[in-house]
């Protein structure tokens, strides 16, 4: 029927005849005919044989003006114009940031929490509050006060599918095309792309060993928003001191800007207690806090959260509802149970110890294999560091990454994290994550990296 063998209006064999011809049950043929009738391929009339539907293959329409191609919105065109971010195949030893070791995941505690949630068997299944489960927001409210010094209301907490969705919601709700958005230079590329996709004019402000150089904000003009990582600047690792935090808040209040504080791995500090969040100093409702469990439990859970000013809570809740209604309920409930029963913080203490051991192994391996030729930056906190190669020009980064990948080692240049080529140092740098490998694997990887770079 589709290719015209049976043209419209032609009669089909009877079900009895076709069943005999094909050697199948007549019931099978009858069921097939019924399905084709229901889909409009066949039609029947009383006392007449089943025929191919009359309008099945209409004559082609006369030639007309060409059909215009599908048009992307301005948002879609901006996304298409960005460099592709496809994930390459992972090498045997990978120093990618953001990955965690599967051995660290608290599988038993998570399974117990999930089982307990599943055994509740609610009377009805339906959509929940787009802000997130009340029990998870209550648990997060208490945890944020204990761990990050934050006081907030339950309606200020929005549970999202990872911090990236939180950043995307900020871009959609707070930025109009042409608005100026301050970004750290260098900074987190996925956040920069989210704001650029919203049409923002990116204003890079340089960072130093203490994070964002707030003294340079005056040159940023009238910005609508600033995205910062004050607890552990990505990627260089600076921790924003209190004087700069106060200056940043004063700037935001003076120009009516919003600050998006991404606390992506603030739980990991190896020499002292984690510093309190920027939001804890905010008295004017200018800061949106972005948190996640991607660096503490698993990036595959896709659970994060926002703490938004009271005045913005309803807008963010409705935007979340339109985006995907709510974050997954089972995972939310399991995380709430871990938080309230103490399992989350017990796991975090173990993860902090293990990652401290990995960090020590990476620092020792870099010193052994490269010595004074490598200068390390940003190793006091977080799950990555930056290794600067003294005397190696910045344009050699791509060749270094290619040579390492050929040896089965994944390394990631710092260059793409800069908004402009004129703002980056003239020496090669690598961002090395250490949370996904055992100490012995890290040592082996750095030795192989040294050999590969020497050969290249």
List keywords for this structure.
single chain; about 450 residues; alpha/beta; eight-stranded mixed β-sheet; 13 helices; 16 strands; about 40% helix
What share of the residues lie within helices?
25-40%
Query: What fraction of residues sit in β-strands?
Result: 15-25%
Helix and strand pattern:
HHEEHEHHEHEHEEEHEEEHHHEEHEEEH
Spans with pLDDT under 50 lasting ≥5 residues? none
Which class best fits the helix and strand makeup? alpha/beta
Tally of extended strands? 16
The value of Rg in angstroms is 29 Å
Biggest sheet, in brief?
8 strands, mixed
Mean pLDDT: 93
How far apart the termini lie comes to 63 Å
Q: What general outline do the C-alpha atoms trace? A: globular
In DSSP terms, counting alpha (H) and pi (I) runs of 4 or more, how many helices? 13
Strand order in the largest sheet? 4-11-10-9-8-5-6-7
Describe the protein's topology:
Elements (H helix, E strand, L loop, with lengths): L14 H8 L3 H13 L3 E2 L7 E2 L21 H8 L11 E2 L12 H12 L15 H15 L8 E4 L1 H13 L5 E6 L3 H9 L3 E8 L2 E2 L12 E4 L13 H14 L2 E5 L24 E6 L11 E4 L5 H12 L4 H13 L1 H28 L3 E4 L6 E10 L3 H10 L2 E2 L1 E2 L13 E7 L5 H17 L1
Helix pairs in contact: 1-2, 4-10, 5-10, 6-7, 11-13, 12-13
């Amino acid at each position: 029927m589709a290719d015209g063998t049976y043209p419209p209006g032609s009669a089909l064999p009877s079900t009895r005849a076709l069943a005999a011809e094909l050697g199948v049950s007549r019931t099978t043929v009858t069921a097939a005919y019924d399905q084709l009738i229901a889909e409009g391929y066949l039609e029947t009339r009383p006392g007449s044989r089943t025929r191919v539907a009359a309008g099945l293959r209409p004559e082609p329409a006369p030639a007309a003006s060409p059909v215009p191609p599908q048009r992307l919105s301005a948002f879609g065109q901006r996304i298409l114009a960005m460099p592709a971010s496809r994930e390459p195949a992972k090498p045997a030893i990978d120093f990618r940031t953001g990955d965690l070791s599967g051995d660290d995941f608290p599988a038993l505690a998570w399974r117990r929490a999930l089982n307990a949630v599943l055994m509740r068997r609610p009377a009805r299944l339906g959509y929940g509050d787009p802000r997130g489960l009340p029990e998870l927001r209550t648990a997060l409210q208490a945890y944020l006060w204990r761990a990050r010094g934050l006081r907030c209301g339950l309606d200020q907490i929005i549970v999202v599918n990872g911090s990236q969705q939180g950043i995307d919601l900020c871009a959609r709700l707070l930025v109009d095309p042409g608005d100026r958005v301050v970004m750290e230079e260098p900074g987190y590329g996925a956040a920069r792309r989210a704001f650029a996709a919203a049409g923002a004019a990116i204003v890079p402000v340089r960072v130093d060993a203490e994070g964002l150089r707030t003294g340079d904000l005056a040159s940023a003009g009238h910005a609508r928003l600033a995205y910062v990582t004050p607890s552990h600047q990505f990627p260089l690792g600076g921790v924003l001191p209190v004087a700069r935090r106060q200056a940043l808040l004063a700037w935001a209040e003076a120009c009516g800007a919003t600050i998006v504080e991404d606390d992506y791995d603030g739980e990991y500090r190896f020499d002292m207690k984690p510093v309190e969040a920027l939001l804890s100093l905010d008295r004017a409702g200018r800061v949106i806090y972005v948190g996640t469990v991607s660096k503490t439990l698993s990036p595959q859970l896709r659970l994060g959260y926002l703490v938004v000013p009271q005045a913005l809570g309803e807008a963010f809740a409705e935007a979340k509802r339109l985006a995907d209604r709510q974050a997954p309920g089972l995972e939310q409930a399991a995380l709430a149970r871990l938080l309230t029963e103490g399992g989350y913080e017990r796991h975090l203490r173990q993860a902090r110890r293990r990652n401290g051991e990995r960090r020590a192994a990476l620092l020792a391996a870099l010193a052994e294999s490269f010595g004074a030729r490598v200068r390390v930056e940003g190793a006091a906190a977080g799950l990555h560091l930056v290794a600067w190669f003294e005397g190696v020009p910045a344009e050699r980064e791509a060749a270094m990454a290619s040579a390492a990948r050929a040896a089965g080692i994944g390394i990631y240049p710092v260059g793409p994290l800069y908004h402009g080529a004129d703002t980056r140092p003239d020496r090669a740098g690598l961002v090395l994550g250490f949370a996904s490998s055992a100490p012995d694997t890290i040592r082996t990887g750095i030795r192989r990296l040294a050999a590969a770079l020497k050969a290249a």
